[in-house]
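Proteins fold reproducibly. Next comes an illustrative record:
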Amino acid sequence: MRALRVHELSEDISVLRMDEVELPPPGEGEVRLGLKACSINFPDILMVQGKYQFKPELPFSPGMEGAGIVLEVGPGVTTLQPGDEVVAGLRIGGFAEEVNAQASACRPIPEGMDFIQAAAYPAAYLTAYVALVIRGNLQKGETLLVHGATGGVGMAAVDVGKLLGARVIATSASDEKLEAVKKRGADCTLNVTKGFKDKVKELTDGRGADVIYDPVGGDVFDESVRCIAWNGRLLIIGFTSGRIPSVPVNMPLIKGFSVIGVRAGEYGRRDPEAGKRNIETIDRWAAEGKIDPYVCATFPLEKAVDAMRLLQERKAIGKVVVTM
């Protein structure tokens, strides 16, 4: 089978190389999947560059989440059988025609979704759900400020925020991209290149945003500290800007807000039962048609580096998916 693999860590993601690989039979508790689609996530890029907290052994194939068909089941697997169409949490391995995955990390594709949609929703919507519900305690009627709202995890946060009954202010550095978010239900949109602190305060009658969802970091985080409400929750999702910011601790003290880290996958690994409930919720929403991931482009496996570059160069809107 073909697999796009990393043999050396590099800032230049073009180091990925297509290999012919012989996959071993699935082990205890594993299934062999014929992958049909795998979505691109920013950590895929960071792993190639050696900058992500999870550092797999070389060589490896990026690809955190995919969808496909069960080809073979390993010893001890009773919940799946060949022919089942599933979505799979992988961490790595998705940039390949086939992969061995833990059966426990696979579940049926929600009714009404195709392989591309199924590959595009899990990580983004699980991140948004854990951030806004579990960590951020977002309440109906509160104001949610979503940064990076035109990316995959940002659009998911806009959707989840609206599902929870919040008033959503979405930001991006592109007016054109923000039009797509506005069409998906954001109440207000702001271009961060023009500054946003004063506008957020104006839109909230001086209070500021109750919950701020920040996958960007850098200057965006710095300005967010200036427009968060009393008892606000500033959710740290990531640092796509490239700069990890810091906050003078007198600011949370004086303004009474919390800075909260969000790692949805790690949350589930540390508390498997809670993680299972979180996944069941987003799967139910998907089956009910409440989740509709926005996929702006698809690429064949051999063009996966081009797909990654769309994210790296901030050209993507929503999700980008690789197909096999």
Q: What stands out?
A: The mean pLDDT is 95.
